[in-house]
Design a protein that fits this description.
The chain is built from 42 helices and 6 strands. The chain is mainly α. The longest helix is centred in the C-terminal third of the chain and has 25 residues.
Length: 904
């Protein structure tokens, strides 16, 4: 049976700080609260911030205007709409235009324009006829490198060399000379430059530009189209500096060709930038050169932005640099993924490029400990004295915090974090929030664009100055619909994030005033988008950020159950059934008189577990069994008899069209409660989790214990353990055997046992995060809230001493030397589990970059081996010294290679 959600790949996240998975999309790893695409000049959309792709692609291509269509529309006297012009230039066929020329238009648009349209714009239509004839051939002939490692696939059959060179040049030259309109003339010149470029006649292309383009003295769209081709020919001639400069001119003056021109520039070194900067004569050219430099080197954008500001504070590309900077900061301040321990979430030392080391030192602390006055200390003393300790109120006293304490909590997001993902490489991330805020505040005074006010408000939001952020937003006067939407969203953000404690009244306010952010709407999407979302998960949004904020607030307030359910489903507890969290979730489940927010937003996540009471009872019963409190376990299992099974989903991995349906457990299938074989009281004969039970396990002699059934449910298992415990209180061989069987039960259901899945809410013993020895001294490893809950398994550790103590009793009472040898081996196996726990708590801290890594690692391993032999080989040693002559020991040496090695 396939397990749901927790895969081997997911488990790789448990111990690493990387999200470098094959399916990871870095642009799914931030919330995009500050919408990048609100810049007014949409031609720069490809240059917004993106890690998934070379250029930003989250926009519709139609948002970037094609200046060529605009030029044709103007040529046709604005008689056509933009869409109609685009249809005429790019979609109407060559034959349809020829029919128009003959006076027999068949196309609906051409019929509408009439034959007079051709007479009026004859030169333009004739040019389009020639251009449509040439277009299928207008690509360079690709020449495969015979030494190339990669195969580029079949290329198009048509390229420029398929045309007769002399005839084509002659025809275009003749048409150029016959044309009267300078713009049309220049378009024919463009075709001559392009044709020579694509036939690799680079010298002729340069000459064609000088002969047919430059003399016309127009620098409109056709000029820069031709310049683009000239630069390509110059690249072919290795005139890289000239090629870069001309591509740079195309980048500056074209809207739709910016992306291709940027790629063609091939700015791979500082010298290339410097050459462009040296040739830049106008302020606009210098400004654009700085933009390209800042775009390629984005470690700290502020120095470049200062240079751009000095040239033109109203520059549109300065806004592009700013929005990219804000996006970078948002990724560091508001990550979608939080690692689950203190060391991974340490805040980054603030670095300020424009301030001294002393000022950095002063600015660095985000949160200072609040000092209490003498009177406040007295009040707190009596409050604690008569009100009980903090730990009496919640697990850790969170509920006993004032608004000020909640606002000053160092774990209250947002704050700057080191991003551990490989998408950022090993370069040191700089927190330039203070510098960018100063820059934005300065620029908004110079620029008339409300963009800078919105940006300033957002940066104050990141700095947790929500009051100042809201005041700025209230003062903005704009009619720009994109700006208005951003302002509205930011006001909601400030309201919710600034709330120190989430009370019932505030939850009512959320439902009344912001339902669109919390009540999910059914979204119908095409199958492609649906598959993409299923693969990566839903795209992080403002709504998901706000839910994270609320989950964090509940966590800080000590309402762990509500915090968990804001980010997870009740069924997710199966992957991580630690008792304290389960109790918090159950407390919320049993809370009477839930308000509308709790019912519709939080309680809706209590899903897919069948009988909820039985679900909780199984988890509690399992925990009681693991700590050998069989009577308590029985009391819970009696309430769990309506348990329908561990909630799992069946997937059709082949067809995306098949629905995901809950797994229906067969009558004889283990479902988390029933169908447990009596092997659970037996012992290993073959250490293999993958083998069937009959291969890996062997039963003991149960003839004295008829209450041990061949197949049991957990209630019957607890009953059997209780009976064995009673019998184990005796002093005879039967008592010895009963204690041995309990020891077997506890070992077999531990992390090392064949039935390790029984008491951790799992369907089988296949490997996963539940079966690692990772441990923490904390009651919970979650520092922030229960986001990414499924990416780490944390359940209370096994107590191997429980099994060992039952084995000790059996060893003392047993008079059979062979049985004693078997018991000692079981004790040694449990003791091995204690060593693994020790090893997990004391990992190597040697850095891979340490030049003496090998020597230090060998020394560390030698130290572990010494500790293992001195402290965790007690029962192996007894077997060797006192029972080496038994048949049991000899058989064990044959089936356990490690024991054989130890004995020798």
């Amino acid at each position: 049976m396939k397990k749901y959600i927790l895969t081997i790949a997911v488990f790789s996240l448990f111990y690493t700080k990387s999200e470098a998975c094959a399916w990871s999309d870095p642009d799914y790893e931030y919330f995009n609260l500050f919408t990048q695409s609100i810049i007014k000049d949409k031609s720069y959309l490809p240059f917004l911030h993106s890690y998934s792709t070379r250029f930003y692609t989250d926009f519709k291509p139609g948002q970037i205007p094609d200046e060529n269509i605009g030029a044709w529309r103007k040529f046709f006297g604005n008689q056509l709409s933009y869409q109609e012009t685009n249809y005429l230039v790019n979609n109407i066929s060559l034959n349809e235009l020829n029919e128009l020329k003959k006076g027999n238009p068949g196309n609906q648009l051409l019929k509408k324009l009439g034959t007079g349209f051709y007479q009026k714009y004859r030169e333009g239509i004739d040019y389009l006829i020639e251009a449509k004839y040439l277009e299928p051939y207008m690509r360079i002939n690709f020449i495969e490198n015979p030494d190339s490692y990669f195969y580029n696939g079949p290329q198009s059959d048509k390229n420029a060399t398929n045309l007769d060179y002399n005839k084509t040049i002659s025809a275009l030259t003749s048409l150029y000379n016959a044309a009267k309109n300078p713009e049309i003339k220049q378009r024919y010149g463009y075709q001559l430059v392009r044709f020579n470029h694509y036939t690799r006649n680079y010298d002729a292309a340069l000459q064609a530009f000088r002969t047919y383009i430059e003399p016309i003295k127009l620098k409109g769209v056709p000029y820069f189209m031709a310049l683009d081709q000239l630069a390509g020919a110059q690249r072919g001639m290795k005139m890289n500096s000239d090629a870069n400069w001309n591509f740079f001119q195309v980048f500056m003056n074209s809207d739709s060709r910016k992306e291709s021109a940027f790629v063609s520039m091939k700015l791979s070194d500082t010298a290339s930038f410097n050459n462009i900067l040296k040739r830049a004569g106008t302020p606009n050219e210098k400004n654009m050169a700085y933009f390209l430099l800042g775009y390629e080197d984005f470690t700290n954008p502020i120095p470049i932005m200062e240079k751009m500001y000095d040239i033109d504070p109203n520059s549109e590309i300065l806004k592009v640099m700013a929005v990219r900077s804000i996006n970078e900061l948002e990724r560091a301040y508001l990550p979608t993924y939080y690692y689950s321990d203190d060391t991974d979430n340490a805040t980054v030392q603030k670095e300020n490029s424009s301030t001294s080391a002393d000022s950095q030192k002063k600015e660095s602390p985000e949160v200072k400990e609040k000092k209490l006055s003498f009177w406040q200390k007295i009040i707190r003393f009596f409050k604690n004295l008569f009100g009980g300790s903090k730990s009496d109120k919640t697990a850790d006293g969170k509920a006993d915090q004032s608004d000020d304490e909640l606002l000053d909590n160092p774990n209250r997001i947002p704050f700057h974090t080191k991003n551990q993902s490989f998408w950022y490489g090993d370069s040191k991330q700089i927190d330039y929030l203070n510098d960018l805020e100063k820059f934005t505040s300065k620029t908004k005074e110079k620029s008339k664009d409300e963009y800078w006010q919105i940006a300033d408000a957002y940066l104050k939001f990141l700095k947790k100055d929500y009051k100042a952020s809201t005041e700025i937003l209230e003062d903005i006067k704009t009619t720009n619909p994109e700006y208005l939407e951003e302002i509205k969203r930011m006001k909601v953000l400030n309201d919710i994030v600034s709330q120190p404690k989430i009370t019932s009244d505030y939850e009512d306010h959320l439902m009344k005033d912001y339902p669109e952010y919390f009540i999910e709407k059914e979204v119908k999407s095409d199958s492609t988008n649906s598959d993409y979302d299923n693969y990566y998960g839903p795209v992080p949004s403002t709504a998901s950020f706000l839910k994270d904020v609320l989950a964090n607030r509940y966590f800080l307030q000590g309402e762990d159950g509500k915090s968990f359910l804001m980010s997870n489903k009740l069924s997710d507890l199966q992957y991580n059934p630690n008792s304290s969290l389960v109790k918090s979730v159950e407390d919320f489940y049993r809370k009477p008189n839930k308000n509308q927010f709790e019912q519709q937003i939080i309680a809706k996540n209590m899903d897919d577990v069948g009988n909820i009471e039985a679900f909780f009872s199984v988890i509690y019963g399992d925990r009681a069994m693991r700590v050998a409190d069989f009577e308590k376990a029985k009391s819970y299992y009696q309430k769990a008899q309506d348990f329908v099974g561990i909630p799992r989903i069946n997937y059709d991995w082949v067809s995306s069209e098949q629905p995901k349906v809950p797994h229906q457990y067969a009558k004889d299938e283990y479902n988390g409660f029933r169908n447990i074989p009596d092997y659970v009281f037996g012992h290993n004969v073959w250490e293999s989790f993958e083998s069937d039970a009959a291969t890996s396990m062997e039963n003991e002699d149960y003839t004295q214990f008829p209450f041990i059934k061949t197949m049991m449910n957990k209630l019957e298992l607890a009953d059997a353990a209780i009976e064995l415990k009673k019998i184990g209180n005796g002093k005879d061989e039967k008592a010895a055997k009963a204690s041995q069987l309990i020891g077997n039960l506890l070992y077999n259901t531990s992390i090392l046992g064949y039935y390790r899945q029984l008491f951790v809410m799992d369907v089988n013993n296949s490997n996963g995060g539940k079966y690692d020895f990772w441990n923490t001294d904390k009651k919970t490893p979650y520092q922030y809230y229960y986001k990414n809950f499924l990416d780490r398994s944390y359940i209370e550790p096994d107590n191997f001493d429980l099994a060992i103590n039952y084995y000790k009793k059996a060893l003392t009472l047993s008079g059979n030397k062979e049985e004693k040898a078997r018991i000692l081996f079981q004790m040694a196996s449990a003791e091995q589990g204690k060593y693994y726990q020790y090893e997990a708590k004391n990992p190597s801290k040697i850095s891979y970059s340490d030049p003496q890594y090998s020597e230090k690692s060998d020394a560390y391993q030698k130290q572990l081996d010494n500790i293992k032999n001195e402290k965790f080989r007690t029962y192996f040693a007894l077997l060797k010294t006192q029972y080496s002559d038994t048949e049991t020991t000899k058989n064990l040496m044959g089936s356990c290679s490690y024991f054989s090695y130890f004995m020798k």
